[in-house]
TrEMBL record:
Membrane spanning stretches: 7-27, 86-116, 123-143
Keyword Protease in record: no
Gene Ontology molecular functions: pentosyltransferase activity
Membrane topology reported for the UniProt record: Multi-pass membrane protein
Subcellular location(s) of the protein: Cell membrane
Protein's UniProt name: Glycosyltransferase RgtA/B/C/D-like domain-containing protein
Keyword terms, alphabetized: Cell membrane, Glycosyltransferase, Membrane, Transferase, Transmembrane, Transmembrane helix
A Gene Ontology biological process term: lipopolysaccharide biosynthetic process
Main location: membrane
Length: 174
C-alpha cells in the first residue's frame, strides 16, 4: 500500500514538473493589454508598499470618472496577495509574476492526475491528464497575469476536500 502511494506521488511530481516546464518554455516577458492584470498588479504593489488606502482611492476616482462602467473599484485581494511576494522579490517582472499561474496550473494538473489515478485505469488516467496538460488554451494562458488558473486550482482542491469531508462523514468512500 505504501509503495503504491509513493509511486502515485512520484508520478504526480513528474506531472507537476513537466506541466510547469512546458508552460515556462512558452513564456514571454510581456503582457497583452486586455484583462484585469494591471489592477491585480497595482493591488499587489499596494500590499507591498503599504499603500492600500491610496490604491483604493485612486482606482475609485478613476472608475467613478469614466463615461461607462469600466471596472470595479477594487478586485478581491486573494490573487494580489499571491502576486505580492513575487513583486517584493523581483519588482515589476512580468515573467516572475506569471509564475503564480504556472505553479497553480502545475498543481491543478498534478492533483487531477492523483484524482484520476484513484478512479481510472492507468491508461485512462494518463489520457485524461494529458487533455489538460497539453491543452493549448490552458498552456497558453500562462502568459497572462490573471486569476483564472489559480482559481481553477483552488476550486478543484476545494471540491476534493468537500468530497473527502462528505465521504468521511458518511462513513464510506465516494
Amino acid at each position: 500500500m505504501f509503495r503504491a502511494k509513493m509511486g502515485i506521488f512520484a508520478q504526480m511530481c513528474l506531472v507537476f514538473i513537466f506541466s510547469c516546464a512546458l508552460q515556462i518554455l512558452i513564456l514571454h516577458n510581456g503582457h497583452d493589454w486586455g484583462g484585469d492584470f494591471s489592477q491585480y498588479i497595482a493591488q499587489a504593489i499596494a500590499i507591498v508598499s503599504d499603500s492600500i488606502k491610496e490604491q483604493i482611492a485612486n482606482n475609485t476616482f478613476m472608475m467613478s470618472h469614466c463615461d461607462s462602467l469600466f471596472g470595479p473599484y477594487v478586485y478581491p485581494w486573494g490573487f494580489p496577495l499571491l502576486l505580492a511576494p513575487l513583486y517584493a522579490m523581483f519588482g515589476l517582472s512580468f515573467y516572475a509574476l506569471k509564475m503564480v499561474g504556472v505553479i497553480s496550473f502545475g498543481l491543478f494538473v498534478a492533483g487531477f492526475y492523483c484524482f484520476c489515478a484513484s478512479r481510472l485505469k492507468r491508461s485512462a488516467c494518463i489520457i485524461a491528464t494529458l487533455f489538460f496538460m497539453l491543452n493549448p488554451l490552458l498552456v497558453g494562458f500562462a502568459n497572462n497575469i490573471l486569476s483564472d488558473i489559480p482559481y481553477l486550482c483552488a476550486s478543484f482542491f476545494a471540491i476534493l476536500c468537500l468530497e473527502r469531508l462528505l465521504a468521511t462523514s458518511a462513513g464510506g468512500g465516494v
